[in-house]
Amino acid sequence: MDEKTLEIFNDSFENCLSNRAFLPRFYELFTESSPEVGERFRQTDVLRQSKILKKSLYILTMATVGTDESRNELIRLGNSHGVQGMKIPAYLYDLWLVCLLRAVRECHTEWHPEIERSWRKMLGPHIAILKSFS
Ligand code: HEM
């Protein structure tokens, strides 16, 4: 990953997480984006949803570092979400990213297009790995 992208992403990551609206806003957008998503998270309260998103973002960003541990964690998630587990279809991952980028756009102070580009570049390849388990 080039340094500029990493810097823009890290700043944005901190900026978004310091906004208390960010995590719940993502889940609001995501669960309203499709009845299938709403149904999957019917039993999951807001606090738990926020914790899951925080954990998700840490797993995806750590995967960029590329340690064995971070790779194994991604494979674990792929298995738990994929055909062997919750059977999450690939198109819902696209929706996940769309909703995340919308929440970033709404919650990041002084948003600009380079911010979105950095999130796509950082998370895209790892989301593609998760999708390959669908
Ligand atoms: C890049 C995308 C995603 C990441 C990184 C991710 C990550 C996670 C993580 C970390 C958990 C917590 C449990 C664990 O650690 O195994 C979780 C739970 C869950 N995820 Fe995902 N997820 C993603 C996409 C999706 C999508 C597209 C759906 C589709 C609806 C989904 C549905 C769920 C459900 C239903 C749970 C369990 C909720 C609960 O325990 O109440 N996830 N996910």
SSE inventory with pairings:
Layout: H1 3-17, H2 22-33, H3 35-40, H4 46-65, H5 68-81, H6 90-107, H7 113-131
The structure holds protoporphyrin IX containing FE (HEM).
What does this structure look like?
There is one protein chain. With 134 residues, the chain is mainly α. The protein has a single domain, classed as Globin-like, CATH 1.10.490. It contains seven helices and no strands. α1 (3-17) packs across α7 (113-131), α2 (22-33) crosses α4 (46-65) and α2 runs antiparallel to α6. It is globular and about 40 Å long. The two termini are 26 Å apart. The mean pLDDT is 96. It binds protoporphyrin IX containing FE.
Question: Into which percent range does the helicity of residues fall?
Answer: over 70%
Level-2 CATH architecture: Orthogonal Bundle
* Proportion of residues in β-strands: under 5%
Cα-to-Cα separation, first versus last residue: 26 Å
The helix tally amounts to 7
Annotated CATH homologous superfamily: Globins
Round the mean pLDDT to the nearest integer and report it. 96
Q: List the bound ligands.
A: protoporphyrin IX containing FE
Count of beta strands:
0
Instruction: List the helices and strands in order.
Output: HHHHHHH
Please state the structural category: mainly alpha
Main β-sheet: number of strands, strand sense, barrel status?
Answer: none
Domains counted in the coordinates: how many? 1
Quick one: overall form?
A: globular
The gyration radius over C-alpha positions equals 14 Å
Low-confidence stretches: none
What is the CATH top level name? Answer: Mainly Alpha
CATH topology: Globin-like
